[in-house]
Q: What sequence folds into this?
């Protein structure tokens, strides 16, 4: 799926006209400073109001879920960056729109090492209506578990949450470095054909890839279906939505959340 600027526009995926208007007045520089102060995130949105605003809503909603419902979503990515073919150091597939790094490494030309859990998003047009229609297209093609315009942003954010939960468990249980690698490698292995089919028809194609994609797809779905679109706050506990998912999905996620 390639980025196109001629996607049909609609407001069926969480973006209201009033919300769209609010993006246009966003001060990106002030937002970056506030995210650094409130969440400790080193964010550079390159002046992109749409992307900056989306990540800001994800940060606020995850913070609310953590404080109000005691969900373990209080882990934040140390850094957030936009990338393009001009500054990315490693080859990235055209079908990749974002990624979260599992270990400290260099990612972008002209910058140093990024910490584990840092999130990188492909440069999108600075147009939240485009993001809205793009995400709806991803859901209509069953690539994503949600049509909400924040879906992609939640997905990458929850990769970081997943990594933090895993490393916390490793440290708590004093898992050796060798066993950590073994466990992480197992989570990257493709599902067997039966499990893959079940996940695909319960959530999305992307969720059926492996455990590392299943985790953020589940949480992206339950979070976006819990948002009050008028206030951009949570209208219910996301776990209420979680309880409606198939039992085998619940079993997997309960294990990962500990």
A:
């Amino acid at each position: 799926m390639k980025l196109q600027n001629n996607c049909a526009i609609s407001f069926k995926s969480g973006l209201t006209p009033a919300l769209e208007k609010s993006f246009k007045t966003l001060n990106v520089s002030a937002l970056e400073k506030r995210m650094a102060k409130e969440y400790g995130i080193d964010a550079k949105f390159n002046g992109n109001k749409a992307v900056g605003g989306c990540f800001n809503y994800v940060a606020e909603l995850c913070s609310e879920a953590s404080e109000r419902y005691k969900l373990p979503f209080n882990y934040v990515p140390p850094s957030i960056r936009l990338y393009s073919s001009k500054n990315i150091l490693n080859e990235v597939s055209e079908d990749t729109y974002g990624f979260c790094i599992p270990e400290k490494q260099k990612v972008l030309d002209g910058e140093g090492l990024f910490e584990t859990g840092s999130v990188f998003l492909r440069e999108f047009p600075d147009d939240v209506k485009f993001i809205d229609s793009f995400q709806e297209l991803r859901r209509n093609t069953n690539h994503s578990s949600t049509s909400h315009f924040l879906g992609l942003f939640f997905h990458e954010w929850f990769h970081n949450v997943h990594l933090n939960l895993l490393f916390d468990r490793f440290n708590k249980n004093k898992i050796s470095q060798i066993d950590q690698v073994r466990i992480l490698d197992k989570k990257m292995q493709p599902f067997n054909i039966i499990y893959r089919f079940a996940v695909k028809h319960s959530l999305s194609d992307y969720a059926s890839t492996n455990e590392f994609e299943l985790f953020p797809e589940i949480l992206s779905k339950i979070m976006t279906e819990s948002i009050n679109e008028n206030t951009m706050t949570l209208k219910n506990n996301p776990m209420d939505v979680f309880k409606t998912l198939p039992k085998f999905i619940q079993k997997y996620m309960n294990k990962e959340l500990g």
User: Anything to note?
Assistant: The chain is about 50% helix and 10% strand.
